[in-house]
Write a structure and sequence with these properties.
Blueprint lengths: L2 E4 L2 E2 L8 E5 L2 E6 L1 H7 L4 E4 L3 E4 L1 E3 L2 H6 L9 H4 L6 H5 L5 H16 L3 E5 L5 H10 L2 E3 L35 E4 L4 H7 L4 E6 L2 E5 L2
Parallel strand pairs: 1-5, 2-6, 7-8, 8-9
Antiparallel strand pairs: 1-3, 3-4, 6-10, 10-11, 11-12
Amino acid sequence: MLTVHAADAVQGAPDGADSVAVDGGVVVAIGTYGELTAARPQARIRRWSGLITPGLLNAGAPALLEAAYHPDPREADELGGDPLTGDALTALGMDDARWGASARRGLQRMLRHGTTAVRGPFTRAAVRTAVARSGLRVHPPGPAPEPVSLDPLASLPEPADAFAVTLAVGGPADLAVFGVRDLAALRTEGAGSCTATVLGGRLVFRRS
């Protein structure tokens, strides 16, 4: 569906550009809200506060999904809410079904951090299935970040180093919206400041 995402600014766009129009899974225009809506009066409007950027690439996804367990909220009293690794993970006696469920929860947490792409490879069948069904783009293997984090910005000197795509007309409609003014503020606040994630033109996360 033709949609205009309007915020306070669009990273990398000319000064004054505050909106991105997407149709299906493609970016069709970048410019001011007035320009984009005047040319597309039938478009659905989504208004956000903050900065629109390209979606992020989480290069530590194999470790997050195949070497950590993401507890179900119903297990919070017993296991807490943070990913479990090491001896705590071993003690769970994981099977394929539990790996798959954990991966699905981990992927949802990635979406809440503006992630639209992950690096592979994934060796567990249940995890590969969860990743494929999530719609997240899978990039070829590469160097693992240190530290591994749900926040793709945590191990990088600049937020732009985590952008999974270039935000451009004709490119994929993979966007993230952060509740910050600019990249300097995003570097300080981290990807936890994400308020919305758009993957292939679909709104897949919206902070309530």
